[in-house]
Amino acid sequence: MTLPPTRQALVDAAVDVFTEKGLHGARVIDVTKRAGVAAGSFYTYFDTKEGLFLEVVEQARQALAADVPRARFSDADSARAWLHDVVRLQVARLAEGAATWRMINAAALGNVQVATALRDQADPLTRTLTDELGFWAEQGWIDPGVDSAVVVDALIALTEQAVQQWSHDEAGFDLDAATAAVADAWTALLRMPPRGAGR
Length: 199
Prior knowledge:
DNA-binding transcription factor activity, transcription regulation, 10 helices, transcription, Homeodomain-like_sf
């Protein structure tokens, strides 16, 4: 779906303004100035600054999920390889936008209404992973006792927090090492059998 140019300009500007000033510190006028649009045009597209914030988060979530293919595999090793690729994609995208994701998490922690709205907002990555893991449980590739809807939230939160911590490391961010660490954590939490176990 293509948004009207002014609306998208506001969203793009809001990413920078919210990242710099946080949700609480940002003002509508800061966003409209950064977008290069008339202040009054904001209210043509958004009722509140919080509504704009939710649009920023929705687009960020869509970008995180954009390149994740939906797939069905014939064996656990292929599923594990797909999971590793998904983790690598997520780790890379989260690292690239670390400051923005930090701001999103801070806004959710500081505002109950925002936290509730974010929880209720559809997340395409969560949906894709939940669907895939449900299928994997049916195939016996992960422990069937794993509640995929619950564990997916935990896996995404684990990845976000790990990348937030590593993005502060003065030694630099090693994508391969980070991907391996997170993928190992995911497979352990999912109770996947060892590679080649043929389950």
